[in-house]
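User: Could you walk me through two proteins back to back? I'd like the raw sequence and the structure tokens for each, with a short line separating them so I can tell where one ends and the next begins.

Assistant: Of course. Protein one, sequence then structure:
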Amino acid sequence: MKGKYEFLLLLTLGLVQSQPCHHSVSVDISDGDIKWNGEISKDGVLYSSSNYYRKDNTIFGCPCNLKKCVRKCCAVDEIMENKTCTKSELNVFIPIHEVDNFLYNLDMKNGTHKTSDLFYIHNLCTRRIRLEPGDVFYLQPNGSLLVPDFELDAPLKPHEYCLDVFKDDTMDNMFSALICVEETTEEKLAETTRNIYSTGVSLDDLAKIDVSHKCIIIPACMDFAEF
């Protein structure tokens, strides 16, 4: 019967016209349980045909279309050390807030995230900007990331950020966030840049602006700001 279901799955995939979610928040469900109607079940999530897609002979599901997600940069037993995901004995706690009010911690090492309403995924941004010490951010119960200092129109979604503990010359086992430039701001960059120049702001005026937080939205400092 499984062969029959796999044939049905191939037929279903052939009918899917577009990728239903960002690849950065997709999970491999190729070895999931294929149902008679083309649905695939894996890790407690049931994916309908509108919530998975095929890429390079692998079937990817879109859990964040079905559940609230939290995205860690590295695996559960890793932290980011000198820009590389590295095995660590450190216990990573991810704090959850309601706006800026602390609610509870997700304990990644001891598995309390498995009983949370949030679906855990891990995937590192290709191009990214790191929030530095002093930058304020709050992970919300719905999996979005609130970054007040950036004055964004809306909180960031899981495909637009990842969270982890960082260890390098600037941070010593410090919890922070990466803003995923390729996912987050490509669309916003053009709009924000148009807004900046439509107001008649000169290059001399821009030079006087504190760009410590504005590098995320001003293309001129993207190379400088990337982590």
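----
Protein two, same layout:
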Amino acid sequence: MGHSADPLSCVFELISCIQVNKRSRLGVLIRKPIPMASYMIRKAKPEDCVDIVGFIKELAEYQCMLDQVDMTPAKLEADAFCTEPFVNLLVAVCSKSNQTVGYSSFSYTYGSWKGRTVYMDDLYVSPQHRGAGLGTSLMQAVAKSAVERGCNRMNWIVLSWNTRPKELYARMGADNLSEKEGWQSISLFQDNLELFADKLGANPKILFDL
């Protein structure tokens, strides 16, 4: 987003109504100043991947898991901007500095109980830009995209010790399924995933046509 050319840092809207001047009886258009928005949330572009990966590492460091991150800008760009993207990315941009200050990443999945689902993997705002509602707005943008795609559920995870966002999520009306239903998140990472996949076909009683 470029800087405004207006030295007053605001844009003007022409009001359609006409005010009649009592002396001249001539119509005049009123110009009403509208403050410029502080931030813009938009779909990410390939050139945003460098900033996003920087945020990914900042978030992982806050979560004390930086050693687990092997994401690179090239890898993220390949996965997000291919013919069938694996991930969708939104960024928040500061209007004054034109700098990217936050992001969210999400993908569409499917649940056998509810059908179309969106999973939000990451949500992050730079510390110096928190408190302006960017986190909530990024989540709302993900939710809006999900509704437009016909999803009826939005999932994400949060660390058990990170109490502040959990309180926010509860006020939003979100359910903590770990507490409510006892669900736990399970993952197979690359090495074990490949070992497990390599065992396909080891059972002679089962044939595959995939």
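Helices lie at 49-62, 73-80, 134-148, 163-172, 177-180, 190-198.

Let me know if you want the two compared in more detail.
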